[in-house]
Amino acid sequence: MSESFIGEIRIFAGNYAPFNWTFCNGQLLTIAQNEALFSVMGVTFGGDARTSFGLPDMRGRIPLNFGQGPGLTDRAFGSSFGSSEVVLTEANLPPHTHLLQASNEAVTANVDPTGQATGVTAVPFYSGVSNMTNLAPDAIGNTGGLGNGQTAAHYNMMPYLALNFILSLKGYYPSRN
Hints:
The chain is built from 1 helix and 9 strands. The chain has one helix at about 35-40, and strands at about 10, 20-25, 30, 50-55, 85, 105, 120, 155, 165-170. The protein is elongated. The mean pLDDT is about 80.
């Protein structure tokens, strides 16, 4: 492998970390045994800054440049964000409408309304409270959820390919500009 900078991260398709590299799995390292790496990374990714410091945890994550671009959210260096599952609520949904489902079947006062919302009828469509009939749950669309006012999470992940992120423990010390 070509010489690397201390603290450099690469994507690696092997199922092991090469010599002088380690996986980016969020583990803690001792400062005494990794002084040069600690001087580059500090405790951005964890540790107590006295005896230990942490490595980035890239498991289940994609890298993103920190800062803020035009029209983008500001992201602090070393911060983690996002979720693999999201629960949608009514507040997450854009304004929209549902079409009313109706039947062309003749409706009389004694017809079972299951699966129907309206129909051709001599019975007044708008009637008094005494003639009210409950609609079938699927007559005007399903609002989702678990049927008791709760909602379930759905996966919110783009397609991905699982590979290893490895971090260089040894190599050139990166000089500052």
